[in-house]
Fold:
Amino acid sequence: MIGKLNHVAIAVPDLAKATALYRDTLGATVSAPLDQPAHGVTVVFITLPNTKIELLYPLGASSPIAKFLESNPGGGVHHICFEVEDILAARDQLKATGARVLGDGNPKIGAHDKPVLFLHPKDFLGTLVELEQA
Ligand code: CO
Structure:
């Protein structure tokens, strides 16, 4: 069902430092910071030859990243995102196996202007999984 790895998202406590680490130490191509108020994050996109890394920093009071950083003050992998061809078909297939979809179960428009869903980490080996329609 799942296709390409679309991105790995890392929550970071200091966006400038994290960006410099990827740009200067690892030699990656990084974007300018982009505020995404609808998602409560500021994102830096790191483009790799075969996938992307997204550095997530909290934006606004109710950012979903803030709690994660409280538990992981040094930052950490927040979620991984797989592409699927048909997000509604994927959702229904997963729900039929008992997997839990977060929120109201309906896709939202994600960081790349495509429909996304999140799956409960307890159902996926402790990893928050995002599905994005390819
Ligand atoms: Co994501």
